[in-house]
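Quiz preparation item.
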């Protein structure tokens, strides 16, 4: 998330890290406005995680905008990135649960 935020020229803030700022920006965007593919989607049963391809997609779309990146575009691509990254996380985690025959996943946030 932080690397994508840097691509969108989100500056560091004393209270929030870039990833958190990206999330706030995404809340105002339309994820359907900037199509991004889900990483490793064609690899059906893998449990691997990789966000480099997703980051590259964002970089290419930002480069296509040139120097005139609107705040709406930033919000839309942030939302699209967040949706694709989350779908990737959920899919790969579900694959891992299936592969290991586990029925329960416990997430702890500290």
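Solution:
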């Amino acid at each position: 998330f932080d690397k994508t935020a840097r691509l969108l020229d989100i500056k560091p803030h004393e209270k929030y890290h870039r990833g958190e700022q990206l999330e706030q920006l995404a809340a105002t965007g339309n994820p359907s406005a900037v199509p991004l593919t889900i990483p490793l989607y064609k690899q059906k049963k893998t449990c691997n995680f990789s966000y480099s391809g997703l980051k590259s997609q964002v970089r290419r779309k930002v480069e296509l905008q040139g120097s005139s990146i609107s705040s709406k575009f930033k919000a839309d691509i942030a939302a699209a990135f967040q949706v694709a990254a989350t779908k990737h996380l959920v899919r790969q985690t579900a694959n891992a649960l299936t592969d290991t025959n586990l029925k329960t996943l416990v997430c702890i946030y500290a």
